[in-house]
Write a structure and sequence with these properties.
Helices cover 58% and strands 10% of the residues. The protein has 240 residues and is α/β, with parallel strands linked by helices. It is globular. Bound molecules: cobalamin. Residues 64, 67-68, 70-72, 74-75, 81, 84-85, 87-88, 91, 123-130, 132-133, 169-171, 173-176, 200-205, 220-223, 226 line the site of cobalamin.
């Protein structure tokens, strides 16, 4: 049994599992991304791992926090597309080292037997967050079928027919693309498939309020919560 297992046994709250949120390396990591310094982002990520800071804290309070600042700067017109792309590159440099550790964060060793079909919605190519969600779902015993990015509404429906998943996951990172999540749910209803699958939504502009508005079954604001919600949905299905 590893220290991580001990830690996970003690705390079931995802917020707590992140741990070490105020470590100075995390602030430096954030700043490295804000400075668009990919090399420093990578070396600080490795340093944070060596310091045994929880991978979820590195991901959320270091890397994601930094990339969001650059996103906000872009939104205010202070930086432009090349800078946004560089921030994404920085993020990837860090994430590549954190992902293998996320795979060890499973809460139990059993396969859930659950199948998840997931993709980023039509007209949206953001996939860093979706891919992290996939890594953690797989690590927690889900079989995942990744439809990729820019997935049109009908393709989601086809995939539900083809794979008969327990859960359909949709990621949307832009306000102008999040409506596709609602459209896919409507299509599922029109096609008589809505009762066949649970729908889970996520991505920066989405929220619990949005989930309720569009009639999805679950919302996760990060990958850790996504896994927790997916497990709950699976239990609901098995009890139904
Ligand atoms: C990196 C980035 C890019 C990269 C993407 C690289 C890639 N391979 O993904 C590049 C440079 C390509 C890019 C392009 C664009 N981008 Co961009 N981008 C971002 C940025 C800065 C970070 C996104 C990210 O990776 N975050 C880190 C990950 C870890 O977090 P996350 O995605 O939120 O995922 C977590 C959770 O949301 C959740 N989650 C995610 N998906 C799912 C799914 C489910 C089912 C669940 C349960 C949970 C879940 O778990 C994840 C892990 O914890 C955001 C800013 C922001 N605040 O999000 C802008 C942002 C999303 N982009 C934006 C824009 C406008 C664009 C462009 C249109 C710019 C342009 N003029 O071309 C294009 C879009 C092209 C397209 N058609 O999609 C805007 C959207 C504005 C809006 N409100 O609509 C943002 C918000 C920036 C801003 N403030 O203006 N972008």
């Amino acid at each position: 049994m590893t220290d991580t297992d001990d830690f996970l046994d003690q705390v079931d709250d995802p917020e707590e599992r992140r741990g070490a949120v105020d470590h100075p390396i995390l602030a430096e990591l954030q700043q490295a991304i804000i400075d668009l310094d990919a090399e420093l982002t990578e070396s600080l990520t490795l340093e944070a791992i060596a310091e045994e800071i929880s991978p979820l804290a590195i991901l959320q309070d270091g890397l994601t926090a930094g990339v969001k600042v650059v996103g906000d700067q872009f939104g205010r017109g202070e930086v432009f597309l090349p800078q946004l792309a560089m921030a994404a590159e920085c993020m990837k440099k860090g994430v590549q080292h954190v992902e293998p550790l996320l795979e060890e964060l499973e809460l139990d060793d059993d396969d859930t037997g659950g199948i998840v079909v997931i993709g980023t919605v039509d007209e949206d190519i953001h996939n860093i967050g979706k891919n992290i969600v996939i890594t953690m779902l797989k690590a927690n015993g889900f079989e995942v079928i990744d439809l990729g990015v820019d997935v049109d509404n009908e393709r989601f429906i086809e995939a539900v027919r083809e794979h008969n998943p327990d859960i359909l996951g949709m990621s949307a990172l832009m306000t102008m693309t999040m409506d596709h999540q609602a459209e896919v749910i409507e299509l599922l209803e029109d096609e008589g498939l809505r009762d066949e699958v649970k729908v889970m939504v996520g991505g920066a502009p989405t929220s619990e309020e949005w989930r309720v508005e569009i009639g999805a079954d679950a919302y996760g604001d990060n990958a850790d919560v996504a896994v927790k919600r997916a497990k709950e949905l699976l239990t609901d299905r098995q009890l139904a």
